[in-house]
Amino acid sequence: MTIQAVVSGLGTYAPSKVLTNHDLERIVDTNDEWILTRTGIRERHIAAPEETTTDMALRASKLALAEAELKADQLDFIIVATNTPDTLFPSTAARLQARLSSSPIPGFDLQAGCTGLIYALAMGSTLIQNGTYRRILLVGADKLSSITDYQDRTTAVLFGDAAGAMVLEAKTDTDKGVLASYLKADGRGGDLLSLPAGGSRLPASEETVRDRQHFLKMNGNETFRFAVKAMPEAVEEGLRAAGLTVDAMDLLVPHQANLRIIDAAVRRFNLDPDRVVVNIDRYGNTSVATIPLALDDARREGRLKDGNIVVLVAFGAGLTWGSNVIRWGH
Ligand code: ACO
To answer: Domain end: 175, 203, 220, which one?
Structure first.
């Protein structure tokens, strides 16, 4: 009997504070027209100073668990994809476990840049399909505002804060679930997108703070060039691993980093806009949370139907890239 890993719950959360392009005009030398035409972003949500990645993860997780009709102590495992853990250790997964339940559920943080949720879904579905676990909570949560340099206009305009969570469950009497995943990493491009200080290579010091090395650094043009190649590759290879072609894809849910990167993929596959989810205008780039946020929006709009072949695709720091192919429903 084949065990399928189905998504039985999905929950998302974005902080209430909205930072518009016009707000940013007062912070850095930029303007609404530049941001909108170069990135597709109009506004993003920003966490309160005291609001942590775990706080956001908790809110999204509770919604996902409620939809799955599960109590937290029925979970077998927790994977939190994040690039902005509350602390390097203990893990955000352990913090989340303590907030959700008094049961000692195992879990860990997974760091794969903005591809983290794709990696988490690949790991989680494998652990279910091989019979190791039956119920896994997957979370993508990032507080990018905590590592964004609001003096650097080339990055300050791009990022927002949010969290998304999915409950993944074992089912045997269904053809729904995760069909295949495709994962890649190539560390030779690591310097294109990095957080230079605060790790063991360059521990925090007065000097690193003075030089603003504890903020995200990005080579936007090179990252863009990488992304327009990586996304189509991951879509095609993920579908190939599932024994499908682009024609079979009902909905593409791409990482929301730049509208022009998404448009390049749409043109490459000659896709009808109905088959692609875009919500970057309202959230900006929320890293590992973009895909659950986009899935949730598509569902609210009635665009995510039972039995649909859905392709999730992302790229990010590492460099990493990858995709998951899901037959939606449970
Ligand atoms: N406002 C106004 N002008 C700006 C701004 C700004 N916010 N930022 C840059 N500019 C200026 C530059 O200084 C430059 O001016 P110059 O021509 O006088 O030198 C001009 O605009 C063009 O700059 P480019 O960097 O060439 O602009 P580009 O069209 O490449 O857009 C961007 C930059 C948006 C960063 C783009 O390269 C991009 O999106 N790259 C991919 C980024 C990405 O996907 N990152 C995330 C990956 S991983 C993750 O999701 C965390």
So the answer is: 175
